[in-house]
Design goal:
Belongs to the short-chain dehydrogenases/reductases (SDR) family. The chain has seven helices and nine strands. The chain is α/β, with parallel strands linked by helices. Helix 5 links the parallel strand 5 and strand 6.
Length: 258
């Protein structure tokens, strides 16, 4: 994949995605950017999607990689399946999809019981309906040898006061992903993975002056994702993996919280 001296201690040295096309939904975001960069290093052709053309244009210009393509895609578009089919027709077989999307909403940090019906509905649609619609459109579009990887946070497992609706959505989409994996297992479709993350070092956080060397580098998340898609990870047969502590690496079960 790259010079072994630059890899985390747990990583494989022979992850190769050369010639494979991977779709990264939300790949221009913080964690998504790290995933995109790692997939490009592994040799993949990467298609990054977002809803904003301006965001994609800035991202593409900044990354400047010949194997990177960008496309607008809205998971709430009534014609989502048609858009995915058109993308597949243009780019060929999709060997992998990464879903790295989350929306904190506009309601600010408040108790769950202080949410209005409108704020609750907004969170439900943006953080749960989007993932449901993504699986419905993408499972049939990904090669049987490929994988779909949903990126989630530890809020899926623990209380998250002040952002409870986000945590509820994370828990729901974790269950959704595992259920889809169970239902689709043995049907000849792609593998389904759920990756639950700790706190990540991302470019937007660093630009905002928020950083901690103890956090997980976003590109390390991408290395784990690349290994899952390439079937090089020891966890490639597991639906669920946790990447919470960079000193420990990806695990099939959550490590004890410090």
């Amino acid at each position: 994949m790259t010079d072994a001296t630059t890899l985390p201690f747990w990583a494989q040295t022979d992850t190769d995605l050369t010639g494979r096309t991977i779709l990264v939904v939300g790949g221009a975001g913080g964690v998504g950017e790290g995933i995109t960069r790692a997939l490009l290093v592994a040799g993949a052709h990467v298609v990054v999607t977002a809803r904003s053309e301006a965001k994609l244009a800035e991202f593409s210009a900044r990354i400047g990689h010949p194997q990177l393509a960008v496309r607008t895609l809205d998971l709430l578009d009534p014609k989502l399946s048609e858009s995915v089919a058109a993308l597949r027709s243009e780019k060929g077989v999709l060997e992998g999809v990464v879903l790295s999307v989350a929306d904190w909403g506009s309601q600010g940090r408040k108790r769950l019981i202080d949410f209005t019906d409108e704020e609750w509905q907004e969170q439900l649609v943006q953080n749960q309906t989007t993932i449901f619609r993504a699986f419905r459109a993408l499972v049939p579009a990904v090669a049987a040898t490929g994988a779909i990887v949903h990126i989630n946070g530890m809020s899926a497992d623990i209380p998250y006061p002040g952002a409870g609706a986000v945590a509820v959505g994370s828990a729901a989409t974790k269950s959704l992903t595992r259920t889809v994996a169970e239902e689709e297992g043995g049907r000849g479709g792609p593998r389904i993975h759920e990756v639950v993350l700790g706190v990540i070092r991302t470019r937007p956080r660093q630009l905002a002056g928020i950083d901690n060397p103890a956090w997980i580098p976003a590109i390390d998340v991408g290395i784990h994702v690349a290994e899952l898609i390439a079937r090089k990870s020891p966890l490639s047969s597991d639906v669920l993996s946790y990447f919470v502590d960079p000193a420990v690496g990806p695990l099939p079960v959550p490590p004890p919280l410090k």
